[in-house]
Each structure stands twice: as structure tokens, then as C-alpha cells.
Amino acid sequence: MTYHLQWIYGFVVFFYPGGSSEIRRDSLPWHVLLGMFIYVVAVGNACLGFLEKLTFLEVNGLAKYGSEAFLVNFTAIATVLYGVFVFLTILSQGPTADDHSYSAIA
Prior knowledge:
This protein has three helices and no strands. The chain has helices at 2-15, 21-59, 67-92. The chain is elongated, with a radius of gyration of 20 Å.
């Protein structure tokens, strides 16, 4: 539900041609923060899904150190590392203190 509200708010504020640049400038940090929060929650949800899949496979007789278990664990670790990489990339491209300008897409 929160994702849909963020999407609607972002679409109205950032793509509506009549919107003021002051509203865009003031809401951009909150828009980025909420988007980062949703992304972290999505990566966590994916990791819980891998854990659930591995649990169901082990209940049905999967070897603890079998090739399928290693594949699921490797995929989960790769997902976490990718999520961390994207998160750090977002943080590294933050605006400087002097750069609060926003240019509309048009």
C-alpha cells in the first residue's frame, strides 16, 4: 500500500507540468528515503523467501550440504550483496549541500 502511495505522490509531484520546483525540491529527500526503505524491505522479503524455500526443501529430505542447498544459499547471499551494492550506490550519489536544484523532465 505504501509503495502505491509513494508512486502516485511521486508521479503527481515530479511529472505534473504545473508543479512548483519548491515542492519538488522539498519532497525529493523524503521520496528518496521512502524508496530506499521500500527497497531494503523488498530485499529482506526476498531473503525470507529463500529461507522459507530452503526450510521446505529440508523438511522434504534435502541434504543439509547438498547442491540444491548451496544453490539457494548462494542465491540468497548474492541477493543481499546486490542489495547492499545498490543501497551504497544510492547513498554515494546524494546531492551536495549546495546542489538543491531540480530540473523537470520535459
